[in-house]
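Quick one:
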Amino acid sequence: MRQLVLAVLAACGGGDQPAPSIDSPPPPIDMPPPDMNTSSCVPATVFLVTDGGTYTSGSDDSRTNKSNVVPAGGVTFDPYTAPSLADARTCIAQRLQPFQITVAATDPGTADHVEIVLSPKDASEVGLNVAVISVATVTSCGQYLPNAVSVVWPARGNDVAADTCDLVVQTLGTIAGLDYTSTCADAMAFNPLTAGCGGAFTNAAQPCQNGNCRCGGTTQNSFQSMISAYCAR
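Output:
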């Protein structure tokens, strides 16, 4: 099975920050196939890692803090303590309400769960360009790794709660195989930190950013795609 590491870049920078030069995203990476969810939709438990922690390189496994996006030698992420975090959590819960996605208050430990690390630094800590705002491992259309590990860098959006919410919510779409869209007002907007972009998953056909969608055709309905991956609540 082919896994793809996707890095999302802030084309216009976050807030008032200038946009640095942008390197090409990392190429596809072939990894041994993990245990996969095979039903049409599977409810998910998500844990937002805000206390920091050390992750080692390897196939994604949130239970053992291994991540496909971490370079050899591992990375220790600092705690994320932005005052806006509480408001971001409220926004995330509201955006995910239509889907069977449970945001856990504590680390589920050895139980299957998706982890999204919120880091106060920037993507250079995993060897990527500082313009990268999030990075995740994608497997296939409509399926997610049951123990996926992704990283977002909210400081690229000046730690604004709405932007942090956009980054986290979009990451859950990314790991389920959703494409980015050129439509601004959608959770899968190519650069959700652009003013007026991001928001909820829209229940309408939107053009895929690169023309052809990963799941076929040239448009995707991000709301229905999320239901296909995580089930409706």
